[in-house]
């Protein structure tokens, strides 16, 4: 297949977070590279400046807010013939619950912003359900494509043997991740040989250290430069997040053969069919019960094949989105020529 | 399948349930089912319900006693409607209540919990001339925690989707999901509303009108206020971990409103000591009720002071005057 289109990825958050890795993976994926010439352009939030002219598709990975809305409107106005796609990496039901007081106004913002794009990509089925439920964008323009990163280095890790001894909490130390809940729940488990390894850094670190107090079983391991290192030292991974559009950590942990316990929120629900366990209920007690159950149940990882299928599906879906955009455009141009 | 289900939790309500069911069967909007959950009644409740079963919309479900939350949960599990209303078996729905909520929910896809104000009636069903007139629009989780605009268990009509979103199954439970937490014997309403507000983005919104007649039981009211406070605190500690910043910001004010409510109840009971104690406790928690609802807070303070300094007779005189003025 020859490259039939040029794709420009707009990114306004270039910290070493999940979004950057997801985009890198898209650019690197051979089937996508075969059909599209992809470029990544870091932009200032809310001010995109002059963009390259010769593109067929612009994929926005940027954050939507009232402040960035003018830039998105300008993007639409100056690119009437370019297919605009938005990937919603941030907003979910859980996000709204924890960060938004004027819900209706916020939904209004999202409706306006999404309407500027030809296609909106939800990164999990749960997020897509939420968008459909509140009619945030037209059903026709919504596509669900799970995020993915290269999982092969995680598959290469030796799976843990025997009972779970070390629990891992992996991610930015931020209220979003709910590690404060995890520390409290962990401290109610009496087993002196159990360990909780908290891997990451972030604004909540001081608070978390205070919560952990002098409990020698809780270790703050700092940020792992190589993502695989985070998983090598733990037997299981806990994600008590308050919101999560997709939750890459869950797929990475499952690929590494580690059992995963997830909060029953947003995109984390999507990992259930792939072997993640969901915490039944929102209270502190539910988290403790979930931890106990995970520690008591012998873990048998699902065949890694399922994750491979999911990955292949994401690639296919992106390919379809790219090709369909080009087809639509040529169709439209042909009609215009007549 | 009916569009709406009305759940009537019933425990030893032979005296009142006939009036309740009559008001429900007389709803102006007709596409509904009534699910009477007989929660292990030991009186003649079932006999009183029997004649209503000639109406094909009325279904009766009997279970061993599981409490109000357990009865509601069984009702929700059996309900087939997309909208689920609740009416305790001693309260009464105005004829247009269901129609109003159905219209509201159909027109507002973001609203999950639709509620109305209520007028208060006494044991004999006589109007007390008092009403719950809650905030109707722009309701946030903070409003719900502080002022519970839903008001009482016979006020809301709630989307089935909302319950599906908060359903869970404790390990001890074999038969069906839980929506209301059955370990609560009081404050089960506010616990459920807070869980909806803090774990889903469904909105709470009220409709105008006093569409529920809420029965104030003369004996029941003053009983067990300490147990009620304890249940409320249990709700706080259960949910705090969900959203620590939210609770850190609002709990004291919410608790202040709780104490103010208990102070007002003590005033109605003419219990001077308790009224003053609760007023003090309220102000010690937070001054915000004074800012947010100055009139009601000051009235409570004055009533408690009058009762304490001048005795119940003086308070009666003042309240008599107030009634004459209005």
From TrEMBL, chain A:
Name under which the protein is recorded: Mannosylfructose-phosphate synthase
Pfam families: Glyco_trans_1_4 (PF13692), Glyco_transf_4 (PF13439)
Gene Ontology molecular function terms on file: mannosylfructose-phosphate synthase activity
Glycosyltransferase subfamily 4-like N-terminal domain ranges (all copies): 53-152
PANTHER family: SULFOQUINOVOSYL TRANSFERASE SQD2
Keyword Secreted: no
Enzyme class at the top of the EC tree: transferase
InterPro entries in UniProt: Glyco_trans_4-like_N, Glycosyltransferase_grp1
Gene3D superfamilies according to UniProt: Glycogen Phosphorylase B
Source organism phylogeny: Bacteria, Pseudomonadati, Pseudomonadota, Alphaproteobacteria, Rhodobacterales
CDD domains per UniProt: GT4_PimA-like
EC number: 2.4.1.246
Keyword Transferase attributed: yes
Provenance organism: Pseudooctadecabacter jejudonensis
GN (gene name): mfpsA
TrEMBL record, chain B:
Top EC group: transferase
Superkingdom of this protein's organism: Bacteria
Alphabetical UniProt keywords: Glycosyltransferase, Transferase
One Pfam family it belongs to: Glycos_transf_2
Key word Flavoprotein present: no
Residue ranges occupied by any Glycosyltransferase 2-like domain in the UniProt entry: 5-115
Endpoints of the signal sequence: none
GO molecular function: glycosyltransferase activity
Transferase in keyword set: yes
Record InterPro entries: Glyco_trans_2-like, Glycosyltransf_2, Nucleotide-diphossugar_trans
EC number(s) recorded for this UniProt protein: 2.4.-.-
Stated name of the protein: Putative glycosyltransferase EpsJ
Organism: Pseudooctadecabacter jejudonensis
